[in-house]
User: Fold these one by one.
Assistant:
Number 1:
Amino acid sequence: MTILGIDIGGSGVKGAPVDTARGELLDERFRVPTPQPADVDSVVDAVAEVAAKFDGFDSVGVTFPGVVVDGVTRTAANVHKSWIDAPAARLFSERLGKPVTVLNDADAAGAAEVAFGAGHDQSGLIMMVTLGTGIGTALFLDGVLLPNTELGHLEIDGKDAELIASDRVREAKDLSWEEFASRVSKYLRHVEMLLSPRLFIIGGGVSKKSDKYFPLLEVNTPVVAATLLNNAGIIGAAVSAQQATTGHGQHPGSIPVDATAPGSPVAAAAHTVNSGEAR
Ligand code: BGC
């Protein structure tokens, strides 16, 4: 079975077929710019354009930068408001003619890191934080995902945290690495105070530049960079679709870390709509 993973980001919509047992891309990924405005119709077009580059896939996993419950997108902080309450899984599935699973982007990236990357074999409470256009979060307890945590919207100094410490803000305000590290530290210390995780995994575009600011971070919890970098969302989306399609892992609360085992961290959060059912 071939699964396509597609990651809808703030600046690009990227996809590739994925080896879901190894957590690797099977082909070079294809990217189109995220349409502006990123409304439902134009993003569905962009996803279809990415999917059209690849042949012979059986199902598709798609990440979305907002809350996703049962295949319906519930929030839209950094995309067009037309996504609020949109039946995303059904719309993608109708357009692509394949079963489609949709889940939050940070949940997908975190699930990939927990299964194959920086969080592999780690027990206890682990938090993935993606620093990109916004701040995405995913929480895993012994490999089990608590979906849609949205802790990037915690309030820091009276402001939404993602307006203080996202990579978009770093670029827009041309922050020095010292200033960015100080903002990220403040955010992570706040989360640390609330949740006491064992490990922070930092992903998103800026994870490639971790050497520039990780040494400057002041936080007690160990911090590591995501290892799957830009491909974590694509891989996590595909693993989620694979688990949902094969019926594995649909029992929240009993999901092992190993994405190849029956049940995966992502499947509990995902919802698949078959193209046949969609009409
Ligand atoms: C959204 C999250 C998303 C994050 C990263 C936030 O603004 O609310 O759902 O995971 O951005 O894209």
Number 2:
Amino acid sequence: MERTVDAVVEAVAEAAPDIRGGLIGRRSYRDSANASGERQLAADVYADQLLEERLGGIDGVGEYASEERQEIVDVGEGLSVAVDPLDGSSNLKSNNAMGTILAVYDDDLPAAGETLVAAAFVLYGPITSMTVAREGVVTEYELVDGEMQLTEDAVELPADPVVYGFGGRVPDWPDDFESYARDVERELKLRYGGAMIADVNQALEYGGVFAYPALESAPNGKLRLQFEGNPIGYIVECAGGASSDGSQSLLEVEPTGDIHQRVPLHVGNESLIERLEASLD
Ligand code: FBP
């Protein structure tokens, strides 16, 4: 299993320069929508196909699933990989940060977060970096031509939180979330860029909280459990933080059987997530 996880993580690192390079000329929308009914960019489709090819070919990988396709692909026997090939892809038009998210489950998909054996994200910022969580430890690398160069070997959320970022339109926030948000904005600085990976990485670097909460118009929020909620919850918890769907850890959320299940997502310093859960009671 260890070797398969190594191979999957390395394959995503090696794919990153190709995904980043492939953004050029792929900023237009296609006619089709993705499995969640959202418009797809040519870059989303390109990144998905590339990752299916690279990850699906690894010995010890049994299933490949992606936010960009309806069906789970059977690729052999072994671990299941779920990816968001281009998180925050609507930022491509305005040339802002985006990411790639990886979840590796030791179970068939859709799987519970508690069966994760690794999770990682690539952040396409001014520098391409990769953050990997395994066995309770979070490690950060810079990617140079797809090679992982260590920058921090035990990432921990700073104890004193500084930043917050909350998704969704304010009038669409339920009252209990809005009153929590009003408290938080009196204490912390706003950092919201519209790509979850980039916004979560602000909380990892500076301490704080990121949420894409339940909305009046969408009680399960916007983000997806298998591709976003579970891996991000795992990474933040391994870095000493906490995650929540509003009442429990994201890793405890039971999969409904829909690979595209959505979940309200809140991650950050433990004290801020405890306060959130108390506010939503
Ligand atoms: P995609 O994976 O389709 O890009 O959607 C996810 C996402 O872009 C997150 O990265 C981000 O937090 C959120 O949607 C932004 O949504 P909004 O545009 O409502 O702020």
